Amino acid sequence: MSDITGQCLCGGVEYSAEKVNAEFGACHCKMCRQWASGPLFATHAFGVRFDGEDLITRYSSSDWAERGFCSRCGTSLFYRLKDGGDYIMSVGSFHDAVSAGFKLVEEIFVDHKSGGYDLAGDHPRKTEAEAMAEYFADKES
């Protein structure tokens, strides 16, 4: 997808992205569950530009990543690797999230998933060890 837009709940932070992956993942790690009150549904976005940047609070959640949220309404906006330029944006913050055709393609940290729900679909479900080995091999957990 290209030229897609989104915003926080209060509208104080708006953004546009030149390119957005239509496939998204769900992360069940402890930090994402605490941050999003459930799994974080997120996808890669490139060429992201923010309006209302002064309202974005960036929280350094690990040595290698930060999370961004609106300081006014608390909307979870992104997860970003500090040494990378792309953003992993919260799918729910996109204007076209319902009609854009986003597709769940992967769950990670499934061994940390809260009880009481399961996500439908035939997609890979990776444990913490599997996700760390694949995506964060050079990082400490």
Provide an overview of this structure.
Strands 1, 2, 3, 4, 5, 6, 7, 8, 9 and 10 form a 10-stranded mixed beta sheet that branches. With 141 residues, the chain is mostly beta strands. The mean pLDDT is 89. It is globular. The chain has helices at residues 30-36, 128-135, and strands at residues 2-7, 14-20, 23-27, 40-51, 56-60, 65-70, 76-81, 87-90, 103-108, 125-126. The longest helix is centred in the last third of the chain and has 8 residues, at 128-135. It has one domain (2-135): Metal Binding Protein, Guanine Nucleotide Exchange Factor, Chain A, CATH 2.170.150. The termini are far apart.
Short description:
The chain is mainly β and 141 residues long. It contains 2 helices and 10 strands; from the N terminus they run βββαβββββββα. It has one domain (2-135): Metal Binding Protein, Guanine Nucleotide Exchange Factor, Chain A, CATH 2.170.150.
Order of helices and strands: EEEHEEEEEEEH
> Would you report the number of β strands?
10
- Helix and strand content put the structural class at mainly beta
Contiguous low-pLDDT stretches (5 residues minimum) are none
> How big a fraction of the residues is strand?
35-45%
Q: Which second-level CATH architecture applies?
A: Beta Complex
Helix content: 10-25%
CATH class term: Mainly Beta
CA distance, first residue to last residue: 32 Å
Q: Profile the largest sheet.
A: 10 strands, mixed
Mass-distribution shape: globular
Structurally, the number of domains stands at: 1
| CATH topology (level 3) name | Metal Binding Protein, Guanine Nucleotide Exchange Factor, Chain A
Radius of gyration: 15 Å
Mean pLDDT: 89
**How many H/I helical runs?**
2
